[in-house]
Amino acid sequence: MADVSHRPGDISGHPDVSEMRDRYARVMETRGVAAVEELVILAGIYAAISGWTVHFSAAKPTLALSNLVVGIALAVLGLCMSMAPERSQDLNFVVLLLGAWLIVSPWVVARSAGTGAILSNVITGACVCLFALVAGGILMSRGRRTPDTRR
């Protein structure tokens, strides 16, 4: 019968030890990015429900619908990016554009939006843009430290 008991000790003799160390190092390097992307998820959820929490959904239904769609898109993008942060550099630009849209949408979608709707959208959009820039900066600094070996 084969001995399948677990023995304590190091795994230096394991044939895949270098690959496991490299993968663990990559995961630890992108941990900060995943945390920032989780903030994108929260901002997306807030943007989606902001029309009802700030009470402008009845007065400006087009703005509430725009926020709902953009908020859902941000939450889904944030979820996807937090699950695979090493592949999320290209999607940060999309998140940045959606944040910019949140900032300008009160004037584009609803020409005379109220103060609450404007403040909600501008603050949420600025936070989303900041999150995208921070995540992009973390990924770019990681890319400078370690050359891309996938090629």
TrEMBL record:
Keywords: Membrane, Transmembrane, Transmembrane helix
Domain SPW repeat-containing integral membrane: 39-133
UniProt name for this protein: SPW repeat-containing integral membrane domain-containing protein
Pfam families on file: SPW
Top-level taxon of the source organism: Bacteria
Segments crossing the lipid bilayer: 33-52, 64-84, 91-110, 122-141
